[in-house]
Amino acid sequence: MKRGKKYEQAIGKVDRLKQYPVEEAVTLVKSLAFAKFDETIELSMNLNLKKSQTVRDTTVLPHQFTGEKKILVFAKGDKAEEARTAGATFVGDDDLIEKIRGGWLDFDVAVATPDMMKDVGRLGPILGRRGLMPNPKTQTVTMDIAAALQELRQGRVEFRSDKTGVVHIAVGKVSMEPAQVVENINLVIKEVERRRPPEAKGAFVKTVAVSSTMGPGVRVMTGEQG
Description:
Strand order of the largest sheet: 7-1-8-9
Order of helices and strands: HHEEEHEHEHHHEEHEE
Structural class: alpha/beta
Number of strands: 9
Radius of gyration: 20 Å
Distance between the termini: 33 Å
Helix content: 25-40%
Largest sheet: 4 strands, antiparallel
Shape: globular
């Protein structure tokens, strides 16, 4: 794939074989960002996983960098009222299910009470493809709606390994202080390592890299990589 001149200039400043300390890697990524918008900084972790293994969970980043999330809650009765009181953007049951079936998807995250999942599950082909399906593993299927909404507003994010064993997750913006991005990165690395499958053999983390939306990847040194 042909790259632009600015990208080629940026990649020329990166030692592709070097593993940079995380603080140095973040500083370098920020200095190489060339887009006219505030680029997102993404962390990529290549894990030593078998095809049958996956790593998936949520964590609350210490430094939030996204705007206010539109949170949809599937609930009935008292739990629907709890969701409204807690500040959910949209609350409903069958009405919202039908609206989504009709093509409406103007929300960022969906939460559901367990009793709603039989009906919500029918939206799998729609919500699943977009990563919006409520799931107990991400604490978005719960009876404690108020607590779930509070954590989501505080910056709770999901990390999940893909089919190739790589975790991709946004950890900041180029405009943020480097120390804030570093703290977010260190937390994510720690949380991913903590979810290592018990049956995983050998070194768990193969490689770690950070990059901005438009910029080249910079390899990061971790304790496991040594």
